[in-house]
Amino acid sequence: MQRQSSAILSSLTPQARLPSWFEWGALGVRKLARDTRAVFDILAAWEERRYQRRALAALDEHALKDIGLNQVDVWRETRRPFWKD
Q1: Where do the H-state alpha helices sit in the chain?
Q2: Could you give the CA distance from residue 9 to residue 1 in angstroms, rounded to a whole number?
Q3: What is the pLDDT of residues 28-63, one digit of tens each?
Q4: 78 vs 57: CA distance, rounded Å
Q5: The pTM of the whole model exceeds 0.90
Q6: Less Cβ crowding at N or C end of the chain, within 10 Å?
């Protein structure tokens, strides 16, 4: 085990160093910001689907015919959970 750890340590170059606490913190903040943005993007997509499905359900038979749908298509789409695309 001693030989393996010394081989690992000797393979480190002077340029290879561990990040400082500040760098680790900045990395964590960036990751948190990215993940938070991803959550908000998902929530926005869900809200948009909910809005679109409600609007689709409100269309009359003539409007549905114009876009090539019928009541069965609308029923099927509006029954899908908002998190399913």
Answers
A1: 2-11, 21-58, 61-66, 71-78
A2: 12
A3: 899 999 999 999 999 999 999 999 999 999 999 999
A4: 7
A5: no
A6: N
